[in-house]
Specification:
alpha/beta; globular; Leu-rich_rpt; LRR_dom_sf
Length: 464
Amino acid sequence: MIIIPDDIVFHVLQFLDLKFLVLVASRVSHQFYEQSLKIPFGLNLKGKVLPEELILKIFPSEPNNIRDDDHRYYNITSLDLNHCMLRAEHFKQISASPRSRNLRNLDATLNTLLEEGAKAIGESQYFRNSLLETLKLGFCSIGNEGLKYLMHSNFRNLTSLDLTKNDLDNEALEMIATSPYMNKLKFLTLKRNLFDGNGVEKLVYGANLHNLTFLDLSMNEIYDTAFLKAIASSDNMKNLQILKLQHMHINTSTGLQYLADSSNLQNFTELDLAFNSLQILSLNSNSKIFMNLRTLILDFNQLGKDSMVTITNFCNLTKLSVDSNYFRDDAIEYLASSPNMKHLTWLKLANNSLGYESVKHIFNSKYLGNMEHLDLTNNSDLTDEISQLLQPSTILSLQHLKTLVLAELCLTGSDISEEAVSALSQSKTLHNIRMVNLKFTLVSRETIQQVESSCGILFVVDKR
């Protein structure tokens, strides 16, 4: 009789489909059954309305209520309950179940937890001292009192916390900053709450947040940019890589200069300033930030050519998004002629006022040859000359381009011609292109099907 060691059985079972594991493999022998209970798996119930009896079946509160035929729920390590219309009492049931003890990821976004639901999670014997690494509680209305229970719970392994729109004020941010159980936190999302600049100062000066790499403060009513000085000067922000500040009333560069000059933000690689009514981006040319930043998001501001002068000082940018600004041909010419843009692989220029000349500069730039994604959506000044723009003889650079977005270019004006679309598939320069977005243009489906059949390009179109 051949005896297979448990560790070998466990290793083999991990490669099986979950349904096959539950219905077939676990019934082969007692050994297979025991080892199958150890297999970690995720339960995705996102968007589903869950009957009361199903919650009780999956998460019984007493060990003796767990039936043998329910063993498929034993080792749940990831649970997605996003938008399941659950209430506080449901999370009391889940938190009281032994089956919560192995959870590493819990997404409870868009459920009505309130203070009681947060208390149930925070005081649960299975969550306290747990393996929980990711906790998403966006739009759960837990408030300061609910947060208090979480900050006193021993989430010693927590690395990611999402508290979007929970009516949290300055006191809440101080609780996060001073909780001894947040010292492994790397990702923190605090969008759409009630704190001000003083709250941010308390947060970033909290010694327990020294491992933070991602911070999202978007959509909070902070009108004084002094909070940016706190972020820049705090020794606890030395590991910060990504900072998101959308809808934050930052309409001048004064506060941004603090970030630009910071000696603490040596690991800073991404800055998101979308939706800020920023009229000009002007930073000292010797600012430290110009060497570090890899991603810059400036969508929906009011920037023009003067700001492009500053943008081209970011010598290591790989991703730049300037959707819905006031850039014209002269600004794009400046961008395309800058040697600092040689690392750029992703460029979004949608909803500006670009004409044929500005895009011609991009297509012929000797510094933009590494571009893989180019978005020219809804630049109406390109409409009449789009056929000329896409001729193989015009496109001399962009040999690495994989995605070209031309959506909405021809909502008004002449259609993109069949010849222009065909030119994409025939171009020797664009031989790597794999997708072209032509949504809301007037290109016929027949034309697209003909071109698709002759090349490897996927054309994305709207439903017609």
